[in-house]
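Protein in question kept underneath.
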Amino acid sequence: MAVLGVTTVFNPGTAIVASQMNTNFDDIESFVNTTPGLLQLTGGTITGAIQLNNTLTLGTSGAGHDVKLWGDTALDYFEWDADTNKLTIEGANGTTAIDVSDGNVVIGDGSLTVVGTANLDAVDIDGAVQIDGTVTVGVNDTGYDVKLWGATTGKYVLWDEDQDELVLALATKLSFHDQGGGENVVASADGHLEVNAGTTLDITAPTVDINASSVVNIDGALTITGDYDLTMATSNTQILAAASGSSTSGAVTYSFYNDPDLGIARTNTNQMTFCSGGANIASVTTDGLTFGNDSAAANALDDYEEGTWTPTVAFGGTACTISSGLTNKYTKVGNLVHCIFTFATTNLNGGTGALELGGLPFANASAFSYGTVVLGPATMSTGYSFIQIFVNAAATAFFVIQHPTGTSTFGHTETTLTSNYYGQLTYYV
């Protein structure tokens, strides 16, 4: 049995058994603790538990030694390799679990679990990262930049903390709903921002402001549904926009083609005026259409109409048969009606007495009206040199009367069975 001294050397193959040490070296603890000395094991084997109550140093600076600690599972161990200056933990039957060397830590096929807070200076992660909790970068009032690179040169997303802005560099898209879909926002060029939607772009807000300093282009149909006002408040827009001009009765409210003196003005309540060259040309009011600066109701044109009408012919109240397919037209401008007629009688049907023509498109006003007529063949009574049309007040029928020595209605005795009638009549309604 070896003798323990100040320096005891155990040669290769020597076995030190804990039970033997407890029996034969009872004073080893007091010796190691009280006497500076050195226990050297050169290739020996210690079987049993060892308790060290002081610092354990293996080797010296520049001259280290390997240390291997085996686990209960085959091929699993903890090893300090002095030659490579590397600390290795082998697990899962020989697979490297962790490799620490030169300030680097390599974790094998397993996972790293950190309980608590991990304070890391710089992190380089080459694989996928699964984060199951909240990610916070910085604290309130103290932020940090975050950059996400894309697969195309120069494209990235950057949260720039000192500018407090999210940057999508170059033509990087902000997409919605699905990846690679048609719903996105993208700056396709410097100064050109596009908002794209595959089918419909909905903007819902009490007020939507579009601030364009030059032009707003709408490439498709513009439909405004519901009871809404369309108000344009910029000047000199190409199509139609609010403007300022020098019209006589008021400024041009809406101008055309960059001309502030050509457009539409609201010159009064319920009055819209068309302007050209800075002057009022015509106005539309509740009374109708007026011209120039005139807005008087009595001068307003409130109606214009064109059409055809069907004359009737009777002698003494008995209707005659007249030809069809001839021209009988009228034009109504305001309260003035002008009629023309061309027809022929084909049968008097036994009618006798005064000639009465009817069927005017509008009733005459309260005053009498006169017109001209040409009949043929016809014979005026003795003493009469011409005939004309006479319309009673508030009537749609008129008579043919003879002039000038007297006034007499034209009757069946002055016409023939097949007389032709040509005439025109202007009257007020």
